[in-house]
Amino acid sequence: MLTYALRRLLIAIPTLLFISLVIFLLLDLAPGDPLSDQPLTVPPEVREKMRTALGLDQSVWVRYVLWLKQFFWVEPLNTLDAILGTSMAEGQQRIVSWQFRSPAMDVIWQRMPQTLTVVGLAYVVGVLIALPIGIISAYRQYSWFDQIGTFVSMIGFSVPTFFTGVVLIIIFAVKLQWFPSIYDTTLRITDWSSFWQQARQMVMPVTVLALFNASQISRFMRASMLDNLGQDYVRTARAKGMTERVVVLKHVLRNSLIPVVTVIALGVPTIFGGAIITEQVFKVNGLGQLLITAIYANDLPMVQTLTFIFAVLIVAFNLIADMLYGVLDPRIRYD
Q1: For residue 12, how many other CB atoms are within 10 A of its CB?
Q2: Are 136 and 145 in contact (CB under 8 A)?
Q3: In this predicted model, what pLDDT tens digit does every residue of 168-223 receive, in sequence order?
Q4: Is 3 inside a domain boundary?
Q5: Could you give the percent of the chain with pLDDT greater than 70?
Q6: Is 257 a domain residue?
Q7: What is the pLDDT of residues 96-115, one digit of tens each?
Q8: What is the Cα–Cα distance from 180 to 208, expressed in whole angstroms?
Q9: Taking CA 39 as the corner, what is the angle to CA 34 and CA 43, rounded to the nearest 5 degrees?
Q10: Same domain for 65 and 178?
Q11: How far is CA 82 from CA 89, 194, 304, in A?
Q12: pLDDT at residue 273 in the model
């Protein structure tokens, strides 16, 4: 497995370089000017100095290589400096956001806790709900539980999250006034009162995202379980006198989790990407909203950094999913 992981990591390097080149060129060639919001009264010579300060006077290839160096070398060194208290990256140019006039990674680290708190918790809750629903629905196919689970899953997956969010706001925030409609990102938990306030404002966005995630994963879990319940090894296990609990939870579930692990693992990077629409609906100041504001402001360094981080996470968790296949199914070999 170690040899396979190293081989996959070597393959991932040119893959990520190609993805970074595509992202950089597509965004760099897109129409728009970061200085378009500047007043028309700014003299041309001042405007040209501003373009030079932003690095726009250099060729696209020079800016691409510089961006790669900053992303893979300068920013990790700055992170180590912040953790260890060293000064290895002192004086080196970082990726600067045109919109915030500060290092892009600093802004991303500031927004990360909000995204992980809301979107991460919603994903965990969605997975914990989806797995048992999918297992029971498959084992009791066409029962009332399966019918209700299928109905709720189809609604949760087909109805857009912005519609679900607005409905929850109208019912629970406007009519019943149980929960706040706007997420307070400045809230700090210092006592039980602030903890309860934080929990109340997280209920609706977490519910919206958990319903969407659970609807998708439960369908995959049910389909995979149904496919394995009819296999010969299940009949053989029952013929040997194994209890139904052992047959279902040890043999069938373990093999059924292989395709579901892929869905779950590839969905994890969306946690770091944030739920763009849901964060906009509930005004969660996370990475999803940061990406939207960066696109509106034509903040190319921020958009390039965020999208490439998402690409790195997808490649990494794809590798993790492949590693988990061997844990779930001993028949899989990586020779």
Answers
A1: 16
A2: yes
A3: 888 888 888 888 877 777 777 777 887 888 888 888 888 888 888 888 888 888 88
A4: no
A5: 86
A6: yes
A7: 887 887 888 888 888 888 78
A8: 15
A9: 95
A10: no
A11: 10, 29, 23
A12: 59
Dihedral angle sign, alpha carbons of residues 189, 191, 196, 197: negative
Average pLDDT over residues 120-140: 86
Q: Which domain holds residue 76?
A: 16-94
Separation of alpha carbons 260 and 127, rounded Å: 10
* Number of domains into which the chain is organized: 2
Question: Mean pLDDT for the chain?
Answer: 79
Q: Which of 69, 94, 119 is the last residue of a domain?
A: 94
Residue labelled with tokens 């047959």: 247
Measured between alpha carbons, how far is residue 206 from residues 182, 281, 290 in Å? 13, 12, 19
**Which CATH number is 253's domain given?**
1.10.3720.10
Is residue 102 within 8 Å of 96, Cβ to Cβ? yes
Cα dihedral 307/309/314/317 (nearest 10): -160
Same domain, 89 and 109: no
Residue keyed to tokens 């708190």 = 117
Residue 165 lies in a domain: yes
CA dist 181 and 168 (Å) reads 9
Q: 234 with 202: CB under 8 angstroms? A: no
Domain end among 94, 127, 157? 94
- 313 lies in some domain: yes
Taking every pair of C-alpha atoms in the chain, what is the biggest distance, in angstroms? 87
Residues 72 and 185 placed together within one structural domain of the fold? no
Site of tokens 């993790």: 320
pLDDT given for residue 226 in this prediction: 85
Structure-block tokens of residue 9 = 């990591």
Same structural domain for residues 66 and 200?
Answer: no
d(CA 151, CA 222): 13
Distance of alpha carbon 187 from alpha carbon 77, whole angstroms: 31
